[in-house]
Design brief:
Blueprint (H helix, E strand, L loop, with lengths): L4 E6 L4 H11 L5 E8 L3 H11 L3 E4 L5 H7 L6 E4 L1 H7 L7 E4 L7 H9 L3 E4 L2 H18 L3 E3 L2 H10 L7 E8 L9 H4 L4 H4 L9 H9 L1 H14 L6 E5 L5 E7 L4 E5 L5 H9 L22 E2 L6 H12 L3 H17 L7 H12 L8 H20 L9
Parallel strand pairs: 1-2, 1-5, 2-3, 3-4, 5-6, 6-7, 8-9
Antiparallel strand pairs: 8-10, 9-12, 10-11
Helix pairs in contact: 4-5, 5-6, 6-11, 6-14, 10-14, 11-13, 14-15, 14-16, 15-16
The chain binds NADPH dihydro-nicotinamide-adenine-dinucleotide phosphate and magnesium ion.
Length: 394
């Protein structure tokens, strides 16, 4: 690479954001940090700003603006606050690539703004594609913007496709670890608490995606993400449980040949690949050793026990604003579970209720998606405050 690539990291204080900064720290001759954003973790954002000396930072919690500004008064770093500021700063001329690593629907507007401004996107924020995949991918096409997947499964598929872009895909297999409750039944799931759900066997991630992994909603969101990233039909997308998380996903081509991408579970690799594509740059990440994994196993996903995955496939098949409803209801459900308001299985019931009640729109506009998200959240909160009697199906 001749010139340094200037990166904006949205969600720098999160799990993906901090790992991206590790990658950049190890490759300061290749990447430079232009923008960092955080939401509640002002102290970490300040620390990151001092180390990486970006042009601009944004703290989206406006109450923390003076605190951050004060802490950085000796430095030549612009400080902004608020949601709108993130949407604006991603358009800055000197940004080459935006790493979208905000969690949830909150990342949609800034990602769209970056695409609109013609910035290349490294996409961690899968919810963006789940909510409005048609609008996001159409805008990217119009603006000549590439969306490089950061999600490990989608990075795996992308890596398998390099050199094969003209060859049709027959099928993809997204691998799933199965989460901490793989093999458990619904009676067991009815008893578990958030401390148990927050312990993922193979990956260390933010709280929301960790819960999504325990319910298999994460895989459901990834199925929808894959549809948009790789222009697939629902029947081309398969999920296979692979507890060791070594095979990150698989592509099957029209001649029946299958390609898989493998490695130890470490998000730094897909993050680095998205930032450095088409180059592969050196890393000191721990190498995989076959002898430590004499058995790589595969089994079907249990969609009867983990019904969120079935709901996601339903939303994918239905199209329209269904996945937007699924996502908004899931965000509220996960938050309610983390706040001890509902139990593990009730998350699915809440999502299902919202999917039943929210008006279906076959060909939504951007504003329809915004409205759908708002209305679903309102309804989900109403269900929660009325303490609706969820019928937990067994
Ligand atoms: P985290 O919760 O660890 O981090 C989220 C980041 O977004 C933080 O910087 C947080 O700021 C910021 N943020 C949260 N809410 C808002 C908001 N309303 N407005 C602006 N910024 C906000 O999440 P992860 O890093 O785990 O995940 C980020 C995205 O990447 C998710 O979409 C997830 O699905 C995806 N992903 C994550 C993987 C992982 O291994 N973690 C793997 C694959 C995909 P602060 O902390 O300062 O409040
Ligand atoms: Mg993933």
């Amino acid at each position: 690479m001749d010139k340094k690539k200037n990166i904006a990291i949205l969600g720098a204080t999160g799990s993906i954001g901090t790992q991206a900064l590790e990658v950049i720290r190890a490759n300061k001759n290749i990447f430079s940090v232009e923008v960092l954003t955080g939401s509640s973790n002002a102290d970490l954002l300040i620390k990151q700003a001092i180390e990486f000396n970006p042009n601009t930072i944004v703290i989206s919690d406006e109450n923390k603006y003076h605190y951050v500004k004060d802490a950085l008064k000796e430095y030549d770093i612009k400080v902004f606050a608020g949601k709108k500021a993130i949407v604006d700063v991603v358009k800055m001329d000197n940004i080459d690539m935006v790493l979208a690593a905000i969690v949830g629907y909150a990342g949609l507007e800034s990602t769209l703004s970056a695409i609109e401004a013609g910035k290349q996107i490294a996409l961690a924020n899968k919810e963006t594609l789940v909510v409005a995949g048609d609008i996001v991918t159409a805008l990217a096409k119009e603006k000549g913007v590439n969306i490089y997947p950061v999600d490990s499964e989608h990075s795996a598929i992308f890596q398998c496709l390099v050199g094969e872009f003209h060859n049709p895909i027959e099928k993809i297999y997204l691998t799933a670890s199965g989460g901490p409750f793989r093999g458990k039944d619904r009676d067991f799931l009815a008893t578990i608490n958030k401390e148990q759900a927050l312990k993922h066997p193979n990956w260390e991630m933010g709280a929301k995606i960790t819960i999504d992994s325990a319910t298999l909603m994460n895989k459901g969101l990834e199925v929808i993400e894959a549809k948009w990233l790789f222009a697939l039909r629902p029947e081309q997308i398969n999920v296979i449980v692979h507890p060791q998380s070594i095979v990150h996903s698989i592509v099957q081509f029209s001649d029946g040949s299958m390609k898989a991408q493998m490695g130890l579970p470490d998000m730094k690799l897909p993050i680095q690949y998205a930032l450095s594509y088409p180059e592969r740059i050196n890393s000191n990440f721990t190498r995989f050793d076959f002898l430590n994994y004499p058995e790589l196993t595969f089994q079907p996903a249990d969609t009867k026990t983990f019904r969120n995955l079935a709901l996601a496939f339903d939303a994918l098949n239905k199209g329209g604003n269904a996945a937007c409803v699924l996502n908004a209801a899931n965000e509220i459900a996960v938050m309610a579970f983390l706040n001890d308001q509902i139990r593990f299985l009730e998350m699915t019931d809440l999502i299902e209720k919202c999917l039943e009640k929210i008006t279906f729109i076959k060909k939504p506009s951007y504003l329809d998606y915004v409205e759908t998200d708002k209305e679903t959240r309102r309804l989900a909160h109403e269900f929660l405050t009325n303490r609706i009697k969820f019928v937990t199906k067994k």
